[in-house]
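Entry 14. Ran structure prediction on the chain below.
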Amino acid sequence: MSGPLATATTNTRLGSMHRVTAATRYTKSYDTTGWLKVQLEADAVTGKRTDFAFICEFVKVIMAGEKGDRAFFVIKEGEHKGRTASMKKENAAKCLVDVKRGSGAKLVATMGTYKELASKPRRGQIHNQLVSTLEFDGHSAMITLDSDIPYVETNRVSPFFKQQRHSKPLPRGIYRIMAPQSAKADKYTAFYVTAPGGNPDLKYHTVWFPIEYAPNHNSNFVHVGNVSEGCVTMYDLTQWNALYHYLISNRSDSEGIYVGTVTIK
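Output, structure tokens:
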């Protein structure tokens, strides 16, 4: 088994220890949402009670044994880092897997020009799109970097929370892309699967990857859709699944905070 070394007692003699190998695994969703539901165990130190949480794919965990029909593990990255969690053993066999992650995804977005486009999945809505091109992992796809629209800020940490703003693209530069922490509401993207002109094979559409940019409090994302409030938005619905897999299977730092970078030029 792969994983870091830990220590354990071998007998009743004080200080008698031996080194054991703890298995490192990575999370995998059991469906096409991209999210894995786990049971968080009570934490005697913080006082946090047993609860359920959803974590994204390719999060590092350390296996911590079995009891009854449940497998236990320690989450090593993200919002629930350090918490012990569990799931049924038969699910753990499928959803806690021994794989390797990439060392960092690299996206390159070439900024284009504004052009009015009608979106069929959005019932023919016309927006002034900043049509651009995204290169990633051997793929080339049409994206939009801005839709020139008013919107209400939903980021609670932003000083503009609940205020009406007007979209604008991120400035040219290199940005770090963060691992996703929570699912976006299904209502924002589910119709891209079911509506006429959508992509019935579209998956993982509630997984949005935050772009680190302090001036707007990380309010921009890499995500799928036909409207951009300044995000790197995959307009070509047929290319999102490939982009998702490329991003989620990479981590560019030892703490698992970042999946890679996007260069806007």
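Residues 152 and 164 are 4 Å apart (CA to CA). Will compare against last week's run tomorrow.
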